[in-house]
Known about the structure:
The protein is an alpha/beta fold. It contains 16 helices and 12 strands. Strands 5, 6, 7, 8, 9, 10, 11 and 12 form an 8-stranded mixed beta sheet that branches. The chain has a 4-stranded antiparallel beta sheet with strand order 2-3-1-4, covered by helices on one side. The relative contact order is 0.10.
Amino acid sequence: xxxxxxxxxxxxxxxxxxxxxxxRLAYELSAGILRRQAELDRALTLAHVDPRLHDIxxxxxxxxxxxxxxxxxxxxxxxxxLAREAxxxxxxxxxxxxxxxxxxxxEGSSGDESATHPEWLVRRWRRQFxxxxxxxLLAWNDERPALTxxxxxWDQDTLARRLEEAGIGVTEAPFGAGLRLALPHPPPPxxxxxxxxxxxxxxxxxxxxxxxxxxxxxxxVYDACGAPGGKAVALERAGARVVAGxxxxxxxxxxxxxxRRCGVAIRVxxxxxxxxxxxxxxxxxxxxxAPCTATGTMARHPDARWRxxxxxxxxxxxxxxxxxxxxxxxVAPGGVLVYATCSLEPEENALVVKDFLERAPEFxxxxxxxxxxxxxxxxxxEFRTFPPRHGIDGAYAVRLERSR
Length: 404
């Protein structure tokens, strides 16, 4: 991951051979260290420490401070052994001394949630949401996220019954969008029905976004940034005819795998929206779930907070403006354009749409009444979710109709 992979991509192959108990501990260690990296680093004063020891020291201190079931002597001794293997005897002595010095301060966490996020992002959110809601968002991001399943080949009642028969606690997800699993639970491939395509793993926000699109049954939809395929599956299950494309070739296998496992008739193509193989003004519905900074999903992706840089928001917005304009050119008169992100940032959401509508007066907002709970809608009809308020990932969408 330190070399550039996402946590998810790095984690799954590395943990594949572990027993379930060890897999859970490894995931807790990796995700927890990412959530609390700034706090750990301040306590460890890493500026003058061999970089090869940084993650080893973080592993030890995280266990001392955050994992009550791991004895302090075990946290120290395993870190010392890692240091010895990675660097040598002198490094092992240093790690032993540093962690034992901190052992007596095992409860010495700062208690300040802002210590777990980049300072520039905390300042931004305080300006944007106010101090109270920003603090709630930071705390949300630092909690382990719930696993939410959306029915695919099985209906929701069947899925819930089979999970309960397997001893897995389930509750209905917020706004009736899927099922939430109680902790602890097996990884998704070990759940009842996975091999049969009974469900897909998808947060409620994304399932609700597909409902918000309100695509009439039988209508052709071009899901222009379709991987990994969750919204395409939801749209097809609701009766739409879906063509799902993505410019990122490395993501197409997962899109194909999702469609096949869930048993949906989705046509998949490798295509960049900026040069999509469709005639202008030819498509009834185009969905653009645009690549974004994903600030609404940082609880689920704890590495994302450290990948993000201040300039990334403006760069994403510039790309999004181009994608939205390209998608609009494909929409037929009377057709619908749905623009969405999993970002909380106005530069990527409302401001992109505002700029677009000023340039394209033939489009107007056209929210369908009753498609989603009114609590998820802004006064102008845009779909907006805020994690601590709604209990789901942060997301944004707007439904635009073309008049001519």
